[in-house]
């Protein structure tokens, strides 16, 4: 059998590194362990990646490149269109890179040792500027930062939630964040006035979640009970939205 091309060897090294980083963490994974998994010598790995830090940077590179391409595309669009291009594209990009993102989250301090961290921060700042819009004040800029977190953080905390459902939840959350005015600080909340949300009030579904429920039902992959359990609502809520079509 002929030897693998160089590019295939490099890809195999990256896949093995990602698996081992996920299993043991970056710090506790050695180049020797990666080599043993692939039956390669340490020298063979160093030929492609002169240091372990280069493996981490290479694993994160596709995520960063996709985010930069997304922001470049949004630059030519009007403000509101650019805002939602970035938000929806950010969610889709994060979902497409779920495993490297989880690794990056757990080893973020290590990423800070090299240029990858500064590049990531630059991408985040660009996204914040697009979402906040030109001439944004403090409140709009705070919400822009919150919106980026809404489109990123749930992916590393809800690893067992299917992409389609998590996407719907995340976009529903960011739409609510950006469309609901912040309460006036001088206005007491319902809790401060002594009012409480009535127990048993059914949770509502956002537009993205409704579409996800309808797609799952139409595909025949989920029963109504399964859809309700996945989205955290009652069967009656699911039926109500399915009947609205």
From TrEMBL:
Q: Where is this region: Disordered?
A: 179-207
Q: Does the keyword Zinc apply?
A: no
* GO terms of molecular function: DNA strand exchange activity; DNA-binding transcription factor activity; transcription cis-regulatory region binding
**Residue ranges flagged as DNA-binding region:** 30-49
What's the superkingdom here? Bacteria
Q: Which UniProt keywords apply?
A: DNA-binding, Transcription, Transcription regulation
Residue ranges of every copy of the HTH tetR-type domain listed in the record: 7-67
Record has RNA-binding as a keyword: no
Where along the chain is composition biased (Low complexity)? 179-191
- Which Pfam families would you find in this protein's record? HTH_7, TetR_N
In terms of PANTHER family, this protein maps to: HTH-TYPE TRANSCRIPTIONAL REGULATOR BETI, HTH-TYPE TRANSCRIPTIONAL REGULATOR RUTR
Q: This protein is called what?
A: TetR family transcriptional regulator
Q: Which organism is it from?
A: Micromonospora acroterricola
């Amino acid at each position: 059998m002929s030897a693998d091309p160089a590019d295939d060897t490099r890809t195999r090294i990256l896949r093995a590194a990602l698996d081992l980083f996920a299993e043991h963490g970056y710090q506790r994974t050695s180049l020797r362990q990666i080599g043993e998994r692939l039956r390669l010598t340490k020298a063979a790995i160093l030929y492609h990646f002169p240091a372990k830090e280069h493996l981490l940077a290479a694993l994160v590179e596709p995520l960063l490149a996709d985010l930069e391409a997304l922001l470049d595309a949004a630059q030519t669009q009007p403000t509101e269109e650019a805002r939602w291009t970035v938000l929806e594209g950010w969610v889709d990009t994060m979902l497409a890179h779920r495993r490297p993102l989880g690794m990056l989250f757990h080893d973020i301090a290590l990423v800070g040792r090299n240029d990858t961290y500064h590049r990531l921060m630059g991408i985040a700042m660009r996204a914040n500027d697009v979402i906040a819009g030109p001439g944004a004040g403090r409140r709009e800029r705070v919400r822009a930062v919150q919106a980026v977190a809404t489109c990123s953080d749930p992916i590393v905390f809800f690893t067992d939630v299917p992409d389609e459902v998590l996407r719907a939840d995340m976009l529903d959350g960011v739409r609510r964040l950006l469309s609901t005015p912040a309460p006036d600080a001088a206005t007491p909340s319902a809790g401060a006035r002594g009012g409480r949300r009535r127990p048993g009030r059914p949770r509502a579904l956002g537009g993205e979640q409704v579409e996800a429920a309808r797609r799952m039902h139409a595909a025949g992959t989920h029963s109504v009970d399964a859809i309700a359990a996945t989205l955290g609502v009652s069967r009656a809520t699911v039926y109500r939205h399915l009947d609205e079509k």
